[in-house]
Structure formats: structure tokens, C-alpha cells
Amino acid sequence: MKIEIKNVTKTYPRKSGEANFFYAVKETSFNISEGSLSVILGRSGSGKSTLLNMIGGLLKPTSGEILYDNKNIFDFNDKELSVFRNKNIGMIPQVQSVLPNLTVFENVMLPYALYKKENTVGEYADELLKMTGIFDLKNVYASDLSGGEMRRVAIARALINKPSIILGDEPTADLDEENTEKVFEIFKKTAQQGTTVLLVTHETDAKKYSDCVYKMQSGELSKET
Amino acid sequence: MNINKLPVRNLIKKPLRSAALIFISAFLVISMFGGSVIVKSLQNGMNNLEARLGADVIVVPNSAKSKTDLENMLLQGTPGYFYMDKSYIDKIAEIDGVEKVSAQYFLASAKAGCCSVAVQIIGFDPENDFSIQPWIRNSYKEKLELYDVVVGSDINSIAGSQIKLYNTNCKVAAKLEKTGTALDTAIYANAETVKELIKAADKQGINVLSENNPDSVISSVYVKVMDGYDPQAVTDDINIHIRKVQAVRTKNMMTGISDSLSAISSAVTVLLIVVWIMSLIIMFIAFSMLINERKKEFAVLRIIGTSRKMLVKIIITESLFICLLGGITGIILAALIVFPFSAVIEAMLGLPFLVPSFGQTVAYMTVSLLLSIITGPLSAAYSAYRLSRVDTGLIMRE
Ligand SMILES: Nc1ncnc2c1ncn2[C@@H]1O[C@H](COP(=O)(O)OP(=O)(O)OP(=O)(O)O)[C@@H](O)[C@H]1O
Ligand SMILES: [Mg+2]
């Protein structure tokens, strides 16, 4: 799927100062090629999450368009956008995002169960749990997990519907070195199978897995060469 | 995994929170359903008593106690008796506007013999009675002979059995249908029988009549007023023209209670409305706090592709389960309180109490349940809607 970010900006109101708003993301345009693994680096508060959320259709840009196969997803109505997100976008939010009242397995299955009645991906879910190293926790309630375990549940959940794009906002935040490497291997493999992967990360090691590196600086995105 | 499981799972995994909400909605239903059944039962009881007596005016002797005794007898079932000369029957019949008159003969049974407590014995004149006989005829078509009695539905004897009143064997000819009033605790017989019982009491040394001969006394006279005459005017006429008696309008006698009854009714109604609004507010606050506390959870659902509509549906389903569980619990509890203890409630209030018919009860049940069932979703819907309008990306940051 062809993904195009076109003249996108995001401003937030500012309480004090000369102007009454500021740019969290300054005008940005770039294309993400299918099956590539890109990373966005940048300091805290530079606008990385803001940009990622807009690409994921979770935050409406102040101006500009997010095009998937030449269609602006913000022109969709809520139902269309929801279904589109469910099918095509695997999002790993920066904050913890498991549902505490469901088991690990149920959390991972949830995006699939949302629009489908019969269960045909149970085995794939098991496979994802094994890949991320939390298969032993399959039937544990998510409320009882450690931070790193929750993070890996979110990663497996993002993959369950075999989306067109994975958007990871610091997906390795709570993980040790070994698991961080494991997760990047998974993303690398996923990209090789044709899924576009876009990650926000602090891991400079990530560069060695990536096809493309961006740098975010005070809301301005630039490509690192 | 099925998305429909989610609301149930959310309830089960937070038992304390769910129980508290279920309790609120159960409380709502108990007060709605219990309250309306009690009010209706009281109204039924009053109407029934008025219809049962069938008299517009009741005339009793002018002694200070006889009027209160009559009221206590008819409304609370406290046995009592008083007597006046039978010549009053004719005097009352001569008053302008009086259509029918019939005399009653009252006697209180001694404790021993039939019942654990003293009961009221009411005698009537078979020739001219228009109050008691039509009622008896519903259960017993034959003529009542000497020493035949008919018992109210709350008297613990079955038709065909014998009871002993003042050492006299009487046959229970029939048992009357329930009225929900004090009339249910009385025993009925014709005038001859009651006179014999008065004599029997006398022989036992229980002197109910100080000097008179039982054959020449009556206790009260029920009066039916002709169409076109004002019962109040007839009442006044009797009070002015006939000495040593007191005429009481049946309606007025009931008004004392009718007043307190309508006061109770409106108080309960106001209370029900207040309770409902309070529950709505409590539910509203509870659900908005709950949804606010869990908004990250809901944002996660949005992230994985739940539409606004589905999200609102999930939240409303959860609140619906709570109110349904609470509602059913409440109905069962209210029914367990009101129906088995209706006699206790009657005694406590000192008012006639007739539980509404099955159909009516079901109607109250349905309305109470519906009110409670809409309370939760109504409270949840607003918060759910407001939440679903915010950009998911913004919710996740908070
Ligand atoms: N809803 C909002 N209202 C006001 N300001 C906001 C809002 N969301 C983000 N910002 C501001 O926009 C800027 C960019 O935020 P963003 O979360 O995108 O940063 P980030 O690069 O992801 O930082 P981090 O690495 O710490 O996650 C920050 O200065 C932040 O304070
Ligand atoms: Mg961020």
C-alpha cells in the first residue's frame, strides 16, 4: 500500500507567549515505500508521536492530507476509518495499551474478533506469542503483566490482522537488550514480507535494521542520509 | 474471543464496582415497585371497604365511644359492641330521603372457643339487609339458619367445621372471599343467632347488655339514601330530628383515612420521583467517573478499529447488564417484602390493604424495571458519546 504524507501540520493552542498556538509538527511531506522499515529519531517533545498518530488516523491534522493509495483517510467517515484502521494499520501506542480484563491471548485476538465471528487465526496468535516470547502467559490476565510483557502483547496485537503498515511508537521502551533485538528482528522480517514498518525510537541500534532514517527536530522532519 | 464478551468480562473482573452499581439500581426498583404496590394496595382496600359496606350513612348510639368503636371495628378490626333500642329503625326509616334501612347486631367473641384473639361478630336482619347478604351470597347460596355462621377469609376455620362461641356450637356454613379490610376478621350470622349468643354470654357472666333485653336492641343502622337526595342532608336530618343517636356518613368516616391515605400516596409519589432523579444523578456521576477512569481502555478499542457506534454500544451494554441485574434483584426483594408481609403492613398502617391483582402487579413490575433499565444506559450514553467525540490520539496522551 502506497502511503503519502502531504503538507501535514499540527498546531496546538499555547497558553502563554506571543502567538496563541504553536506547531507540534511543521509542514511535512514524505512518502513511505511499501515493505520498507523506517525509523524516526528525535528528542522528547519534538513531535514524533503527534506525527505517528496522524499517520495512524488517530489525530486529525491541522492541515494537509494522509494518503493511503491516493485516498485521504481523513475524508472517510468514522465507520470507514475504523474498519480501515482495523484492517490496515497495526498501531503500537507509546503508552501501555492492554485491556486489563482480558487475557493475553484475548488481547492479541481482539482486533481480529472485532469484525469477524469465526476464529481462524488462533494458531497465528499462538505463533505471535511465541515470537514475542510471551506464549507462557497466554491465559494470564493482562492486568497481571509487567511493563515489558504488556508492550509485547501490544506488538503481537498490532500484527494479528496482517496490516499494511505497522506504526510503533517506541515499541521497545520497556524491553531489555535481548528482547529489543528480538522485536527489531520481528519488524525486519515483517517488512521483508511486504508490510511497511514505521517506528519512533530512541534506540540508535535501530539504524542497522532500517532502510530509511528520519530525524525530528522541533516539529521539523528531515531525512538522514 | 468475541467482542460481545467484553462488557460481561468488565463486570466480572471488577466485582466490587459492579456490585455497588447493581445495588443502586436494585434500590431504585425496590422503591419504585414496592412503593407503588403499597399505595395501590391501600387505595384498593379503601375502595373495597366502601363498596362492601354499601351504606351511605351509618347510625350508631350517641354514647361517646360508639363512633370510634365503629371506626375501629370497620377499619382496624378491633372488636367492639354497643346497643340502642330497636325502635330507632322505624324512626330513621321515616326521615325524608331514606330509601332502605337495616340493623346490625355487634358482639365481640370471648378469646376462647375459636380464635386466638377476640373477633367481631356481626349480625344482620335477613329480611332487610343490603350490605352483608349480597356478599355472603357470593360464597353461600343457602339461607343461614340459627347457629349458622359465615366467617371472614382471615378467620382460621373451614366451611363445614364447628366453632364454639360462648360455649355455643356454631356451624361454619361458608368462608367469605377476601376484601383486604377489617371485615375479613369478623364472623357473620343472622340476628337470631347473635341474640342467642348474647344470652349465652350473659349466662357465662359476661354482661354485654347492662339492662336491656337482647330481643329489643340493635347496634347500628345502615342507611341507603334515595337517588336525588344529598347524603349529607339526610345525615344532618337524622342528627337533628332523632335524639340519642349519631349519624355518620360512610364517606366522611373514610375521609379521615382517605385524607391520610392521599397524603401517603402523594408523599410516596414525590418520594418515588425524588428517588428516581437521585438515582439518575448518582448513576450519571458514577458512569461518567467510571468512563473517565477507563478512557484509555476505550481509546485502545478505538486504536484497534472500534467505531464510535460500536464503542458506545459496548459501554451501554455494560450499563444495561448492571441495571438489568439490579432491577431483577430489586423486584425479587420488593416482592419478598410486600407480598408475604402484607398483613403486617396492614396492621402497621392500621388501614385496609388489598394487594393489586396479578396483572396490575406485573404492570408495576414492568414499569419499575423499565425505568431502572433506562436509567443506566441514559447515564452512560452521554459520557460514552462525549468520549467518542475526542480524537483518540488526544485521549492516549492524558
Ligand atoms: N494535546 C496537546 N495539547 C497541547 N500540546 C500538545 C498536545 N500534544 C502534544 N503537545 C505538544 O506537542 C509537542 C510534541 O509532542 P509529542 O508527543 O509529539 O512529542 P514526542 O516527540 O512524541 O515526545 P516523546 O519522545 O517525549 O514522546 C510537545 O511539545 C507537546 O507538549
Ligand atoms: Mg512520543
The portion of residues assigned to helices of chain B is 55-70%
| The CATH topology of chain A | Rossmann fold
The shape of chain B is elongated
How far is the N terminus from the C terminus of chain A?
24 Å
Beta strands of chain B, count: 11
Characterize the main sheet of chain A: 6 strands, mixed
Structural class given helices, strands, pairing of chain A? alpha/beta
Bound molecules: adenosine-5'-triphosphate, magnesium ion
Outline the structure in words:
The complex is a heterodimer of chains A (225) and B (398). Chain A is an alpha/beta fold and 225 residues long. Chain A has helices at 48-55, 78-88, 104-113, 122-132, 147-159, 177-192, and strands at 3-13, 21-32, 37-42, 63-68, 71-72, 89-92, 165-169, 196-200, 212-217, 220-224. Chain A has a single domain (3-223), classed as Rossmann fold (3-Layer(aba) Sandwich). Chain A contains 6 helices and 10 strands. In chain A, the strands form 2 sheets. Chain A has a 6-stranded mixed β-sheet with strand order 6-7-8-3-9-10, sandwiched between helices. In chain A, strand 9 (212-217) and strand 10 (220-224) form a beta hairpin. Chain A is globular. Chain B is α+β, with helices and mostly antiparallel strands and 398 residues long. Chain B has 2 domains: 3-47 and 258-397, no CATH class; 51-251, no CATH class. Helix content of chain B is 57%, strand content 14%. Chain B is built from 13 helices and 11 strands. In chain B, the strands form 2 sheets. Chain B has a 9-stranded mixed β-sheet with strand order 6-7-5-8-4-3-10-1-11, sandwiched between helices. A two-stranded antiparallel sheet of chain B has the order 2-9. In chain B, a hairpin with a 2-residue loop joins strand 6 and strand 7 (168-175). The longest helix of chain B is centred in the C-terminal third of the chain and has 44 residues, at 250-293. The relative contact order of chain B is 0.18. The chains are: A alpha/beta (225), B alpha+beta (398). At the A-B interface, helix 1, helix 2 and helix 3 of A face helix 1, helix 9, helix 10 and helix 13 of B. Bound molecules: adenosine-5'-triphosphate and magnesium ion. Adenosine-5'-triphosphate binds next to helix 1 of chain A. Adenosine-5'-triphosphate is lined by residues 12, 24, 42, 44-50, 94 of chain A.
